Amino acid sequence: MSNPCEHLDLINDVQPSAEGCEECLASGGRWVHLRLCLTCGHVGCCDSSPAKHATAHYHGAGHPLVQSFEPGEEWVWCYADDALLKVDGLPERSHP
User: Fold this and answer.
1) pTM score, two decimals?
2) Separation of CA 24 from chain center
C-alpha cells in the first residue's frame, strides 16, 4: 500500500457519528462492515452491505477518504482515486 492520493489534506480529527452505520441504525437495516469518513466522521456501511451507505455518502457529500471502522484494520480507502492507502499517524478506530 502506498499513498498515490492527493486528498490526504481532507483528513480531519473526526469523532464517529454513531457506533454503527448511521442510516442503517435509523432505518432498521443491517451492515457487514463499517467505514468512517475522515472528513466529517460519518459512519456508513461497506459495499458488501445491502445499502452501501459509505459509498452513498461519498457520492452525496464528496468526501473521498474512509478508514475501516473494524477492529484490527488500519487501512484507508480513497473513493476518488480508487486506491487503498496506509496513512501514518491516524488513530486506530473501531466500533464497539
Assistant:
1) 0.94
2) 15
